[in-house]
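User: tokens in, sequence out, please.
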């Protein structure tokens, strides 16, 4: 299309004067002048003005991502919802299609469609779906109560993070009202603290319901760890905070027998004092109490030169360095009995430097094929994948490790290693290997293995188009064919 198909010469000149359009150059082929939008916002706005039927946003195929899942289309879709010449019934229909988007193939795109609907009601807050959307986001962000089991079920971290961002992007008034309802009805102290902190710190600074809920919780919560977090939230949210938010940590310092609780209470007091810039004798005293407490923990039993310091001492030393880096004790270094040997990774790099990457890759592959220790397998696979991104043996090994039984702490790093070395064309392999874990999640399995596998599948859903992801999910093989082959098969 040419500009003059849409604008008369007078309007074109006006658009140039207003800065909506810029002269970008001259076409080599035709000699015609080329114009570009000054900012993408203009392009998105006019694109939204040209779309009458919302069904267009859902159209996609194996070669073209549906607009509702494309980040490049989000602003255009939101502009569409803000149009005054679109009937409310059409906007409601589009929202209904988003929140009811299919839950098949793991449900990953159901969540993404829902998050878009949340952003859309910022432009269309009068929607009949507004409260439904807000309530669902709060459930995903915090937890869902399962009365049959009398427990709160947390959603995987990608869903929690997505809901957290969606709440920030949605209609602010509706989000605040939803958080207030949640705080006033939820009984779980951890969830009430999280929601009140979000409300009073992010959505509505100084919100009275948030502050009152936090102050009341200090007196009733039995978990000292959560209590310290609540006290810190009160101090951050309310400049004129209730003294109980300071008195409680002081009490824990003086009475708790748990070194970890004493350390956390001291660190919280120290941070609060610094945030007030030690503006009065009161904060100076609190700061000194915090420093003295941390020094006492660092020095417990022996001086910092002792061998094998415990975890409390190491944590207290780190806290001390954050609060008072020039304190003499903060300059101390703990000695250890062991010296770290040069890593296999360094040896492999040295070999690569001396004899070439091909030799290093061959050495690592042979080592990987002969070892049976999972930790060693993971290390060799990662090193192999760093030398050659997407190395089939490295990817296969890490996928097998993700699918087999190990201690809970094993899976997070394994998943991170896999994401680092994967090529996009190998994403279908991950989907095929790990999709069985979705059934475990649906049955309530929240083990480390299941959660980390879910995060990897979410990563694949982010990088593949909706149509390609579903195509792979529903096939028995794992190879994503070329576009040309897809055209023949479809």
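Assistant: Sequence out:
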């Amino acid at each position: 299309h040419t500009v003059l198909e849409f604008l008369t010469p007078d309007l074109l000149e006006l658009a140039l004067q207003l800065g909506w359009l810029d002269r970008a150059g001259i076409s080599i082929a035709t000699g015609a002048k080329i114009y570009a939008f000054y900012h993408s916002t203009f392009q998105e706005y006019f694109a939204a003005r040209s779309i009458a039927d919302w069904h267009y946003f859902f159209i996609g195929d194996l070669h073209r991502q549906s607009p509702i899942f494309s980040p490049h289309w989000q602003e255009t879709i939101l502009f569409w919802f803000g149009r005054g010449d679109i009937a409310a019934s059409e906007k409601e229909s589009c929202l209904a299609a988003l929140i009811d988007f299919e839950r098949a193939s793991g449900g990953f795109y159901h969540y993404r469609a829902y998050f878009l609907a949340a952003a859309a009601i910022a432009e269309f807050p009068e929607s009949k779906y507004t409260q439904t959307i807000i309530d669902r986001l709060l459930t995903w962000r915090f937890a869902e109560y399962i009365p049959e089991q009398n427990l709160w079920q947390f959603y995987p971290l990608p869903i929690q993070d997505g809901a957290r961002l969606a709440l920030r992007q949605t209609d602010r008034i509706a989000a605040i009202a939803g958080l207030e309802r949640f705080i006033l009805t939820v009984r779980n102290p951890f969830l009430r603290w999280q929601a009140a902190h979000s409300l009073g710190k992010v959505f509505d600074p100084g919100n009275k319901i948030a502050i009152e809920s936090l102050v009341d919780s200090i007196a009733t919560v039995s978990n000292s760890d959560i209590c310290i977090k609540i006290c810190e939230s009160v101090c951050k949210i309310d400049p004129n905070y209730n003294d109980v938010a300071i008195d409680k940590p002081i009490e824990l310092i003086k009475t708790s027998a748990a070194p970890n609780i004493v350390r956390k209470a001291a660190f919280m007091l120290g941070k609060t004092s610094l945030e007030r810039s030690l503006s009065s004798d009161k904060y100076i005293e609190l700061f000194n109490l915090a420093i003295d407490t941390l020094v006492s923990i660092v020095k417990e039993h022996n001086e910092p030169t002792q061998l094998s310091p415990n975890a409390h001492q190491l944590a207290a030393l780190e806290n001390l360095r954050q609060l008072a880096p020039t304190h003499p004790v903060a300059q101390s270094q703990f000695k250890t009995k062991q010296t770290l040997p040069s890593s296999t990774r360094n040896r492999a790099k040295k070999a690569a430097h001396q004899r070439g990457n091909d030799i290093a890759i061959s050495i690592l592959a042979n080592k990987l094929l002969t070892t049976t220790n999972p930790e060693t397998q993971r290390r060799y696979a990662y090193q192999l994948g760093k030398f050659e991104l997407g190395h089939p043996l490295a990817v296969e090994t890490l996928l097998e490790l993700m699918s087999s039984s190990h201690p809970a702490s094993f899976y997070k790093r394994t998943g991170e290693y896999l994401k680092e070395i994967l090529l996009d064309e190998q994403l279908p392999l991950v989907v095929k290997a790990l999709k069985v874990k979705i059934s475990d999640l649906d049955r309530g399995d929240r083990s480390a293995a299941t959660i980390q596998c879910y995060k990897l599948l979410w990563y694949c859903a982010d990088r593949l188009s909706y149509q390609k992801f579903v195509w792979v999910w529903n096939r028995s093989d794992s190879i994503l064919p070329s576009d040309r082959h897809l055209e023949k098969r479809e």
